Amino acid sequence: MWFKIKLLSQLPSLTKEDLSCLSNANLSCESYQALVKALSEHLAEKDTDTKQMVYQYFILPFLSRNSTGGCVGNSDSSKDWLMKNFQSFAAFATIAEFIRLNKNFSAMDVLSLLTPVQLAEFARSPGRLREPRDVDMILKHVVDKDLGDFFDEISPFLQGLNLTQDVRSALLQNVLDRTNLSDPSVHDTEVLEWLKNRLRPFLPNITRDQVNLVFKIIKDRDCETIKHVVRLLSSIRPTLMDATKEEIQWNMLEILRGPPPLRCYKNNSFYVFLNDTFFDFGLPNLTTVLSLIPPERKPEVVSSFHPSELGALLRQPNSVDHDTNLCTVFNNYNRTPVFLESEELPASVRRLVLPCVWPLALAAEDETEADRWFNVRLRPYLPFLNKELLSSGNTLNASCLSFSKLVGFLGSNHSFSSSDFTQEEAYETIKQYLASDTEPKCYNATDPRLNSTAWFVNYIGGFVIFVTSDDLDTFGSKDKLQVFTVNPQNIQLFTTSGVPGSTITTFTQLIFLQDPNFSVIRLPPVFQCSVPRYVYPKLNQNESLTIWRNLNQTCTNVDQEVFSVLVGNIQTVTADVVAVLGQWVLCLNTAQITTASPSVILGSLSTVQGWSQEQLISMVTILFQQNYQINSPVKLVNLGSLVGGVPSTAFTLISPAVALEASQTPAFITNLQNAPPVVQQTFIKQIIKVDAALPKLLVNIPDAMATQIPRNLLHFENTGDVVTLAKNINKKKWKPHQAMMFFDTAASGLEAEELSEDVLQGFTCSRVRSITKAEVKNIIRAGRRRQNRRKVVLEQKQLTCMYNLIRAEKPTDFANYPSDMLLYYRYADIPKASCKSYFTEVAKADFTVLTRALSGRRDILLNNARQCLGIAGNNINRKNLAMLGNMACTLDRPYIQNSDPEVVEKMKNCNDLTEEQCNAMQTVLTQGNTKYGPPTKWEGITLTNLGILPLYFTHDFWKHFNETTKRNFLKPFLKNLRRKKTQKMLLKRFFGELLRGIPAQSANECTAGSITTATICDDAFPFGYDATQFRLCLSVQTVKDNLAGLTEKVDVDEFQRIILEKLTESYPSGLSDEQVQMLGPVSRVATLDEIGKWNISSPDTLAALMNPDDGEWESDKSKAIVTKFLSGSNSLGSSELNVLGGPNLCALDTSTLKAINSDSIKEADPLDISSCTTEKKRALFEIAKQAFPRSPQNQRTDRLTTYQLISCYLSGADREYIRSLLSSNVNMDIETFVDLDESVVLDLSVPEVRKLLNSNLPDLESYQNESIVQRWISRQFQSELDTLNVNLTGGKADPTTASSNSTTTAAPNTTTTATTTTTTTTTTNATTTTTTPGTTSSAGNKETSYSLSFIFLTLTVLFMRNAA
Known about the structure:
It is a single chain. The protein is mostly helical. It has 83 helices and four strands. The strands form two sheets. The protein has a two-stranded parallel ribbon with strand order 1-4. α7 (116-123) packs parallel to α9. The longest helix is centred in the N-terminal third of the chain and has 17 residues, at 48-64.
């Protein structure tokens, strides 16, 4: 105790030496422990150094002495030992010292007594911290405020402890949970100490939740503190999970968003700031970056990026996540041009950048700037131009200079194959842009930037191939656009392959509106195709030929008026001119032709086909004036196509031998076929003079010219080698009246199917009488339509004959017979099941073959077809129209207007149409329900697709088309009509309707354009002229030089009169033969006085005047012409009779007819004398009797030939001659029969008629309503008529029956089938035929009808019966 008291009193002055001396004192453990306790108590308030000195110099040395053994002996536990031996000085010991002093020491037992440093020492001992609970066990003994001391001790040694991640995380988590570092009172320095030093070893693999705790600590701290912490986290980034990295980035973003936003940004480069903020955690995507910037600061912050920095940001993977936000960048960036010029971006980003910078590129108002945009800045981006961007409002509102650059790029550098828009769609944008102004957009003559006239090059460029003529109208008015057209660059642009022809035409027209004197020769050939016609007359001959060559090599569908004008520039016709012009030499007028030398005429012009008669005569006249003689075959052949201009009289001077030799040259025969018929006939007559024997004729006469052999020479004897004879006949061309003469001969030598179409046209009942029934049937079948063969054209009398010959068999294989023959088929003989197959073939027939006498069959056929097809009312559907085929040509107005619109298509196939049908079709068309649509949609193609129908339509139809459309249509249409020799009456009516639509024109001067050779050569001529203008614009000289061309194309009576008046003005004393020959249809409007002044001295003139294609003559005029001809010592030979034909012949006086030589009649073609008076018919018949005398009775074949030769004159025959035919079995056709003199017919008995008609007898039934047949019937006894078995009614009652007054008299019980008159009542597709009592109507036969005479007779009998 003393020692204790003594020591404590000395404590304030104790030194290290004192304490060391004391540690060596021989103290017991108990004494030591008591002393330590006292020291602990008395030094409690002392500073740490004193306590440290006590521990270091007294306690530790004492316990370390071997003699003390650590004073373990009197302790029962580590805790007891620690408390007894260390007391409060234990804090200065280390765990290692405790263990050294007491080998049984267990720190686990004294954790609560250990200091944080000692706990840290214990914790870092190997294997001590194996799992998170070990951490918790230790750290629960460390108070929060001492955690710093604990981690100061453990952190430096963490690297060598190999702690698991869970343990590390547990240590970190304890700190984050307990230190309250987020408290603002904790200084940033302390925070950094913790995070940078104490916790750094524990941060690798930090979790998301721990990251959030870390950022909770730093989020409101100084920017540098935050930066240090993020840098620290960045250093351990490789250890972090992706989710943790994202969490770090998210927390950083939250800090940047504030509030306040961007508190750490100091107005330097925002990109540098972002990198310093996020370090290795990577920059956020663009959307996020932009979200950090307050709207009002976007321009400032975005523009802080250096172009390279912005490029780096945009190149960062997945940086650009939204194109709109990308555009926000460029909308606020003030160095976009520099950026685009210097930075390269990935393709995916460039695609998104383009829409953002597009408005800037399109806003350039400076040429250099616009050029840099499209040639430098946007070059890597433009491949990504898409349809949406191209058609955007920005594009359509672009500056002119920028738009021009865009057009240039699209036209030369853009790859449309990889684009989502086509070239045509690109052009649509261009068109929309340029059409957005009333004047040509982007042109200002006073603005140096926009005053270039290379406007099309600048703003359309390569897209010119899509520009239409209508588009040009949208770009500006013509007077404004035409300024650009003379610019050489624009002209060159429009030569681009693929530019529409109509566009080039419009462009070319604008050139000449701008400069009427613009040199045509300077234009590229493609433009010359469209030069206005009025420009070409200014050219000389050489220039015209140059242009011509260019047009032929370059152009298609050149307006023929252009060629016509160029032809008009020819001053001298040379061989070169002919070679260049080709067929267009046909437009040379007679004045030009006279400039050709004989060598040119023979060497060049003679090779051209298609000359007018006027041109031919002009050239032949030149040759004859130069003493050209056709006295040898070579001279004749060398004429080439000019042979048609040689007068027929000249051929009479050619020796027959020369004619024969020349005929062996095929080319000559081809040319001769184009000559006037009178010339052909005259030439063939010369060959016939060589040898008129028929076998020789077959050899000498070329096949194509056999049509000119007089029919009287075509009587063949069926002897010898009939097969060879038939083959020779079969290969030649024949007219029907020729083929009739030898039909039996040809049919005897060949199989029916081998017979040519020309031979088959000669079928008559007369000629097949000697042929077997089976073979006749085969011949009839051979006349059907066959593939690759012309149709066998047959007349009604031939068709009815065919039917009569097979009607008893009632065949139903209708397709094997001529469709026209089926028109006469008895419908009652057709099984109901076969009616559709019947009408399928009838649909192919030509219904115009039905003559007036049998016109009623059209209605009968239609009614039967309706019944077969189930057609109710007058509404015919498309399917049934297809079945009806050509029968549609018989439909009247109600059917046409109420049927399917397809009816219009069917009417195109009709050979003729009535006015009623035309009006009905016009109504259907204007209703707009056809495939052509309403009239507002009609175009030129509409007219073309209507086929022949426009020929029949009225002004009400034509008013729906403008003049240009009509003119373009008329050119090919009229050419085709003239080629087909359309009836003049139709053409007159057609032009009359067209004239009604021509606007009123000046009556004082020519305003429609002077009529020249070129004008006349236009196929649409004279469209565009009314009568007044035609008179004013047509000069006398033009008429003289182009007479044939004018008369060929002018069909309007008033116009024709003007031509004649001009001729009279030129030739007041009258017209020459050559001029008269050119009059054509114009001759028909001449007066008798004018005709009286004509020279009509040659057969050629008479032939030209009597050409039936030019229209019919009034009888007094034709009489005057023939009289004029005969007054010149001419006679009516066979050629003259052939050209006169029937009506013109009948116009002559009887005395003139009687003067005709019988040889002329013999050699002439059959003449139609049906319009002659009875007196004239008899006169002609008397001559015919001399020409064709009857053969002896035993020469039946010769008698048949005579009959066929004279049959056309039989209407003038007396009864004796007709009766003389009865024994010859002539099989007279019904048409010849009804045309006989009435007195002759009425004098014939029933048996005589039977003999006369023979095979044609059934046709009496069809013709019984003809007046002459009715009168003949009424004179015959009904019982005799009944013996004919052809259902004739109306005969006289038998004498026996008439006198039997005491018995009931009934009308003969006959089965009556008539043809023409039918009384029908149609109700719901059923047809009821009224039947008179006493008759039986053929069941189901819609052809049943009754003549008025029969009805009258029946009523008389009934009256007599009732009276009795």
